[in-house]
Specification:
There is one protein chain. By secondary structure, the protein is mostly helical. Helices cover 54% and strands 5% of the residues. It has a two-stranded antiparallel sheet with strand order 1-2.
């Protein structure tokens, strides 16, 4: 267990690239960026929002499979990443579409699931969550307006025994 943690720490510090195998091909995974995480989030949000009956796995899977073709695109984005295009190597959407179609037509369901699990860990979602939670907390606790002054007047006396006088 300790060796696995040390390996994760060294990979994180050295920013080593991960390699995933899908459909008989190895893919080197791009380092995660916020743009990649945002794009993955956008794609995940477009998956069908349905509850699945765990007692009818086969029927449920076959019922919604046609609506889940986007899963290959999600994996392709996690592999390729979303980087800002530059003059030397402009990003073409067709690159992502080609990778997505290759994954869609060659990867088995078990490969796709294993790759997805590996890639989700590589996206550093926990760190992004921590950052957003921190920033939301800062937004909640920041001063939003000045305190208002109220008119002063006689105050009702409160006895020391805690009962309130009429």
């Amino acid at each position: 267990m300790e060796a696995a943690v040390e390996k994760q720490v060294s990979e994180a510090l050295l920013q080593e690239k991960k390699v995933v195998r899908l459909g008989g091909a190895d893919y080197e995974v791009a380092p995660p960026t916020i743009a990649t995480l945002v794009k993955v989030s956008e794609l995940v949000a477009s998956l069908p929002g349905q509850s699945l009956d765990n007692e009818r796995v086969l029927g449920e899977t076959l019922r919604i499979a046609k609506d889940c073709t986007i899963i290959a695109e999600i994996v392709a984005v996690m592999i390729q990443g979303v980087q800002k295009p530059d003059k030397r190597r402009p990003f073409h959407k067709s690159d992502l579409q080609k990778l997505s179609q290759t994954i869609f037509h060659t990867a088995s369901p078990v490969e796709l699931k294993n790759a997805m699990m590996t890639l989700l860990g590589h996206l550093e979602v926990g760190d992004f969550f921590g950052l957003t939670a921190f920033l939301l907390e800062v937004g909640i606790t920041k001063k939003t307006r000045e305190a208002e002054t109220t008119a002063s007047g006689p105050q009702s006396p409160v006895p020391s025994n805690g009962t309130v006088l009429p």
